[in-house]
Write a structure and sequence with these properties.
This protein is mainly α. The protein has one domain. It is built from five helices and no strands. It is globular and about 50 Å long. The protein starts with a helix and ends with a helix. 28% of the residues are buried. Keywords: Cell membrane, Ion channel, Ion transport, Membrane, Metal-binding, Sodium, Transmembrane, Transmembrane helix, Transport. GO terms for molecular function: fluoride channel activity; metal ion binding. This is Fluoride-specific ion channel FluC. InterPro entries: FluC. Belongs to the fluoride channel Fluc/FEX (TC 1.A.43) family.
Length: 120
C-alpha cells in the first residue's frame, strides 16, 4: 500500500512540476515552429529517468516507484506530445511535425542514454 501512495504523491509533484515548467518555458522561450516547452520537459524527464535507472536497485521500493512511475511518469507526457503532433499535422505543417517527432524521439532516447551513462 505504501508503494501506491508513493506513486500517487510522486505523480502529484510530477504533474504540478510539468505544469509550472510549461508556463515558465512558454513565457521565457521565443516562439518556434514546434511545441518547445513539452519537448524540453520530455527531454529533462528522459534524462532524469536515465540517471535514476542505474541507482534504483539500491533504493527502497517506495522511493523507486515515487520517482520513476510517479514523478517522472507524470512529469513527462506522451499524450501531449501526440496531441501537439496531430495539431501540427492538422494545420498542414508536415515538416514541423516531422521535426518535432524526430527531435522528440531521438532527443529523449539520447538524453536518457546520457543520464544513464553518467550514473554507471
Amino acid at each position: 500500500m505504501i508503494e501506491v501512495l508513493s506513486v500517487f504523491i510522486g505523480g502529484f509533484f510530477g504533474a504540478a512540476s510539468r505544469y509550472v515548467l510549461q508556463i515558465i518555458f512558454n513565457r521565457l522561450l521565443p516562439a518556434v515552429s514546434i511545441p518547445i516547452s513539452i519537448l524540453l520537459i520530455n527531454l529533462i524527464g528522459s534524462f532524469g529517468l536515465g540517471m535514476a535507472l542505474p541507482q534504483k536497485e539500491s533504493w527502497a521500493l517506495s522511493l523507486q516507484v515515487f520517482l520513476t512511475i510517479g514523478f517522472l511518469g507524470a512529469f513527462t507526457t506522451f499524450s501531449t506530445f501526440s496531441m501537439e503532433t496531430l495539431e501540427l499535422i492538422r494545420k498542414h505543417r508536415y515538416i514541423d511535425s516531422l521535426i518535432y517527432i524526430s527531435v522528440s524521439v531521438l532527443g529523449c532516447i539520447g538524453t536518457f542514454l546520457s543520464g544513464y551513462l553518467i550514473m554507471v
